[in-house]
Design a protein that fits this description.
430 residues; alpha/beta; Rossmann fold; 6-stranded parallel beta sheet; 16 helices; globular; oxidoreductase; Histidinol_DH_CS; NAD; histidine biosynthesis
Length: 430
Amino acid sequence: MEITCADYSGILCKVKQLREQANTIEETIQQDVRKIVVSVKEKKDEALFSYTKAFDKVELTKFQVSEEEMELAYQSVEPAFLAALEEAKKNIISYHEKQKRQAFIDIEKEGIIRGQLVRPLQTVGVYVPGGTAAYPSSVLMNALPAKIAGVNKIVMITPPNCEGVDPHILAAAKVAGVDEVYTVGGAQAIAALAYGTESIPRVDKIVGPGNIYVALAKREVFGAVHIDMIAGPSEIVVISDETGNAAYIAADLLSQAEHDIRATAICITTCLELAQEVNREIEKQLMSLPRSEIARESINRNGAILVVESLEQAFQLSNEIAPEHLELHIKEPMTALPYIQHAGSIFLGPYAPEPLGDYMAGPNHVLPTSGTARFFSPLSVDDFMKKSSFLFYTKEALGQVQQHIVNLAEKEGLQAHARAIEIRFEGGEK
């Protein structure tokens, strides 16, 4: 892993280079995704069967997983796994319950009632990856906030393999209260959720991470359906002073690098000796990592160890990156929070590693990536709700602001707007 020691401007250039590298998207992939989306929109199930055979090498006769199959999967997985799911579920619910918004009504002025209604979305589609790795934790993180919001129907969609669907994913779906499960993956699955087919219902919103084809398909269908965000590839920034534990830091960097060769793992430290030790630890730990080939390519392509003069510079660099995951391995991590402007999720101290957030602590692990933490937030209960405003005015209350509205409408050249106000006060009407 390359260690960069330079002045701040030099290190900033390195950071920008890594960001551009990670964000490179082949135009050919976008074109392929667009063709898939159009085909599913037009041919529906016929296209899904064809793409599943071509891409997943599986010939299906149906897409929906039956309740009996769900129950068999639940019964087949080890009790320790179910216990872990239940503990994670409890923590996710306790955290996300605090995010629920309330409707309100405002009657501060006589003759005026204002308010806001909060309603859950009716149908949500949850995409769960099933390619190089299966992620039961993603089922919980996407479905449980939707349940808390009160979503009427949660539809899960996940790629099949020659043996069907990973039973651990189906068990997680049962624990999370998913209503329907379908075995379709990739861009074609996103198109099916966006437009509906003979087998798969159209949804109001699609959430969940996936590969580049899934991400670009979500971008393609946005507008026909709402989406959470364009998530991926995974990324982590670890900030450390001289008190950092090199073995912990290396392990945490590799925890993201093993996701995907496009993942980004960056350590920013004030200590050159620690930087060198982290580099040695990465090489040592790669030797025994089952997904070492993926992790090594990720580290070589998108990894970096940056040595800076101060923690202030480290925080500044981190804000430039706006990482998905930010770990603070420093002496007093809580004191750094005021300096962190942009990060999806922040992990404080050596005993709050990123996988704690992925699986167990409760905050959502569906997070903004590729610098979008500058304006996106983690997935939350808010993502599964919509708001409507309402107004009531008496004639007297409207009369008090009549001329203001007319003045504004006429200034904008919208005479019908002005007329809609004036007509209510003509001829002494009551």
